[in-house]
Design a protein that fits this description.
Blueprint (H helix, E strand, L loop, with lengths): L4 H11 L2 H7 L4 H15 L4 E3 L4 E3 L1 H4 L2 H19 L6 E8 H6 L1 H11 L3 E8 L1 H9 L5 E7 L12 E15 L18 E3 L5 H7 L12 E4 L3 H9 L5 E4 H10 L2 E3 L7 E9 L4 H6 L11
Parallel strand pairs: 3-4, 3-5, 7-8
Antiparallel strand pairs: 1-2, 5-11, 6-9, 6-10, 6-11
Helix pairs in contact: 1-2, 1-3, 1-5, 2-3
Length: 297
C-alpha cells in the first residue's frame, strides 16, 4: 500500500469534502476517491458513507483521528531516520514550549553535544498541553516543559524517566513608556493594560490560582496570546504589562529595557522538567544532563 494514503485520509478529515481534499492533494477527484477506497480495503471497513451529492466520514475514523495523526507522524519520522541514517548519530525529537526553546533549549543542546557528539534534534514547539500530547502519542521522545514548583507532578507512569533541568519564575514586566509610569515602589497605575494568556492555558491557570496583580487586574486587556516570545515584544514596545518567564526576559531586565513590576515582590516559581520515553535510550541519557538552576535574580 502507498503510505501516502495516510496523508490523503488526514486531508479528507480536515476538509470533510472529497473535492476540496483532492484539490489539496493535487489529483483529480476520481483518483482521490480510488485512493480512499484502497485505504478502506486495507482497513477492512468503509471510512466514508457515500451519497449522491456528498460523503459522510464514519464515526469510527473520526474518533481515532489523533491516533491516525500519530501514526502518520511515526511513518514520516521513520522515513527521515532511514534516509538520514549515519552510524553513530541519533536524532531525538523534542517537544517543548515556545519560551523554553528560545531561552533554555540552546544551553541544553550545548550540554548534550558535549556529552553525546552524535546527537541531533528535531524540535516540536507547542503550548504546554500540546507538548504533553506529542509526548504521550510517541511523536516526541523527550519532553521539556514547565511545572509549577510545589505543584502536582505530571501524571506519567513509572516507566517515564523524569529529571529537573533547572528553575525559573514568572514575573510581571513593563517596557517602553510604561516604565516611567511606575510608582516609587514599582507599582504600575491601576489602568495599565494587561496582556493575558488564553483561558485554560498553562500560565493562565497558574496565574488564576494565585493572588497576584494579574488575577486582581481591573484594567483593559491589550491582547490575549499564549505565545510568550510575541508577548515579550509587545511588552518591550510599552503596549501593556505582561507576565513572562524570567529566563525569557533576563537580558532585557538587566539592560533596563524591561522592568519587573511591584519591586520584584511578586513571583510564581517554575520548575523546568525533562521527561524521556524508555524506548529511546539517547533521550534517557539526555535526562541525566543536570545543570545548575536557571539564573532568575
Amino acid at each position: 500500500m502507498d503510505l501516502n494514503i495516510f496523508d490523503d485520509v488526514l486531508v479528507l478529515l480536515e476538509e470533510g469534502n472529497m473535492s476540496r481534499a483532492a484539490l489539496r492533494r493535487n489529483i483529480t477527484q476520481p483518483a482521490f476517491s480510488r485512493r480512499i477506497q484502497s485505504f478502506e480495503i486495507w482497513l477492512g471497513r468503509p471510512i466514508v458513507k457515500r451519497t449522491a451529492n456528498r460523503v459522510e466520514i464514519e464515526p469510527a475514523l473520526l474518533e481515532n483521528t489523533a491516533e491516525l495523526q500519530a501514526l502518520a507522524g511515526h511513518i514520516q519520522a521513520f522515513r527521515q531516520r532511514i534516509a538520514r541514517y549515519e552510524p553513530g548519530r541519533s536524532t531525538v525529537t523534542v517537544a517543548a514550549q515556545h519560551s523554553l526553546i528560545v531561552s533554555i533549549f540552546p544551553d541544553f543542546a550545548a550540554g548534550a553535544r558535549e556529552e553525546h557528539q552524535g546527537v541531533d534534534f528535531r524540535l516540536r514547539a507547542a503550548n504546554h498541553n500540546d507538548c504533553i500530547s506529542l509526548f504521550l502519542s510517541g511523536e516526541a521522545s523527550l519532553l521539556m516543559c514547565y511545572e509549577r514548583e510545589g505543584g502536582d507532578p505530571m501524571p506519567f507512569d513509572d516507566s517515564i524517566i523524569r529529571a529537573t533541568w533547572g528553575r525559573d519564575r514568572l514575573v510581571p514586566v513593563v517596557g517602553g513608556p510604561l516604565r516611567f509610569a511606575l510608582s516609587p515602589k514599582g507599582i504600575p497605575p491601576s489602568d495599565t493594560p494587561m496582556i493575558r494568556y488564553p483561558k485554560g492555558s498553562f500560565f493562565a491557570e497558574m496565574l488564576a490560582g494565585a493572588s497576584t496583580s494579574y488575577s486582581n487586574h481591573t484594567g483593559t486587556t491589550f491582547a490575549e496570546s499564549a505565545f510568550t516570545v510575541g508577548l515579550k515584544e509587545m511588552a518591550l514596545m510599552g503596549f501593556a504589562q505582561a507576565w513572562l518567564p524570567m529566563s525569557l526576559v533576563y537580558s532585557e531586565v538587566q539592560s533596563g529595557a524591561l522592568i519587573v513590576c511591584n519591586g520584584d515582590t511578586e513571583t510564581l516559581p517554575l520548575r523546568i522538567s525533562l521527561f524521556a520515553r524508555p524506548t529511546d535510550p539517547v533521550a534517557m541519557r539526555l535526562c541525566d544532563l543536570r545543570r545548575s538552576p536557571v539564573t532568575t535574580s
